[in-house]
Amino acid sequence: MNRNKHILLVLLVFLSIGGFIYSSINVFTAMKTMDQVMRLVRDYYVNSVEPEKLLDYAIEAIADSLDAHTTYLDKSDYENLMINTKGEFGGLGIRISKRGDYITIIAPIEDTPAYRAGIMQGDKITAIEGTSAKDMKLNKAVSMMRGTPNTDVTITISRVGIDESIDFTITRDIIKIKSVPYAGIIDKEIGYIRLNSFSKTTSSEIKNALDSLIDQRAKKFILDLRGNPGGVLSDAVETASFFIGRGKEIVYTEGKAVHNSYNSTNGSYRQYPLVVLVDGYSASGSEIVAGAIQDWDRGLLLGTRTFGKGSVQRIYPLQNKKALKLTIARYHTPSGRCIDRELVDDTTKIYHTMGSLHREVRGGGGIIPDSILPYSTTDLFTKIQTHNIGFNFVVSYTSKHPSTNAVTKAMIEDYKKEVKEKEIEFSKEAWDSSSYYIKRDLERRLAYNKWGSKGMYEAILPKDEHIQTAVEILKNVKVPSDVFVKS
User: Fold this and answer.
1) Residue-wise pLDDT tens digits, 270-286
2) pLDDT tens-digit profile of 324-383?
3) Active-site amino acid positions
4) Which residues of 285-302 are buried (b: 16+ CB within 10 A; e: fewer)?
5) Which string of b and e fits 432-456 if b means at least 16 CB within 10 Å?
């Protein structure tokens, strides 16, 4: 390693432990000292040192000391980030996770090679191209399964209820990740759109969904942002622009070297009454959309306080195909509320909306809905969910009873036994009080297992209390401002 790299490395290490104060020490003297330290380490340290690893540790330490969203991305992380924001990649179309010794398929993505080949939720990957997948790391599995479109890869699957392993030879294809997994009419003139992320394709997907629902005579809309973690800023701004008049501010950012304002460029759907659903996992881009819609009195927000991830990150590519994701600014809604909960966590301060109603809204630190509707549950159901018993149970049950199309009493009784086998203690009263949530969860999992995401949404939407509350609000409204009266 040459002299300059020595100096940079040690300087980064020194910065990472907070020992270098740029304004109070001569930088050249410091660099000379750092170079001296590196030479001592190189010449006299008892063990050999890999400079690149030291550099990785130093940058990671710097990133970790700043804020929760500043991150050092290694080659694999950087590639995955680019894939997620572009919305497509070459592969099979499966979401996977490591459970025990083997990789488990959490879900095949609808209308992908894996889905069409018959890969199922709960399948375990035991081999890829004949190489055992036992104890294989996720990154390696992903790299082996991804490849050039129209090439084949063979994966070996172990499935509950089947004694022998199954080989699937699947032809790779471009996998498009949908931001809008479902859109449909849920009550006469009310259209529902589920938006689960913001990628480069989001704005076109939203527009297509809106136009399709309007063709089906939708005149009012529910936009579901629950659990939406955010994504590409430009598409979040454009999504909000569909509902907000042209030229009106959607969001502005403030940072040391960043001061930007983003305005609506559309407004094509501003005449339609709107309810937006949010929760504690709605973050970043979804908070921008929700905050702008609320600030312009454009729609009613229903649910719980959002996550409060209101900071702006920029990706700075580094050498060796690595990158630094650095927080450079924070988001503010048009009324001035700071979305970022790390900076501000005060829900008592009063702001006023920018629309004609001039309503009071609270902030900042996350977006507080106009109508608070918490999620009702029970301790027992929460405990069952934590253990993820439902996932494995439905996979096993449908393997043994392939004709099952609905949750029956017999199925619930078997599930009750499964819960007991997991040593979760409960009384008859606790089970009875949780039965509604347990059945609804099993219905959701069964519908997805049998009919994919479309079937799942059609099964759960009629029983979703937040959606049904939104429907009741929208039923008799005629203009957008009516939603605030009806709520």
Assistant:
1) 999 999 999 988 888 99
2) 989 999 999 999 999 998 877 887 889 999 999 999 998 788 999 999 999 888 989 988
3) 284, 295, 309
4) bbbbbbbbbbbbbbbbbb
5) eebeebbbbbbbbbbbbbbebbebb
**What pTM did the predictor assign?**
0.75
Task: Write out the chain in H/E/C secondary structure.
Answer: CCHHHHHHHHHHHHHHCCCCCHHHCCHHHHHHHHHHHHHHHHHHCCCCCCHHHHHHHHHHHHHHCCCCCCEEECHHHHHHHHHHHHCEEEECCEEEEEECCEEEEEEECCCCHHHHHCCCCCCEEEEECCEECCCCCHHHHHHHHCCCCCCEEEEEEECCCCCCCEEEEEECEEEECCCCCEEEEEECCEEEEECCCECCCHHHHHHHHHHHHHHCCCCEEEEECCCCCCECHHHHHHHHHHHCCCCCEEEEEECCCCEEEEECCCCCCCCCCEEEEECCCCCCHHHHHHHHHHHCCCCEEEECCCCCCCEEEEEEECHHHCEEEEEEEEEECCCCCECCCCCCCCCCEEEECCCCCCCEEEECCCCCCCEECCCCCCHHHHHHHHHCHHHHHHHHHHHHCCCCCCCCHHHHHHHHHHHHHCCCCCCHHHHHHHHHHHHHHHHHHHHHHHHHHHHHHHHHHHHCHHHHHHHHHHCCCCCCCHHHHHC
Give the whole-angstrom CA distance, residue 198 versus residue 205.
10
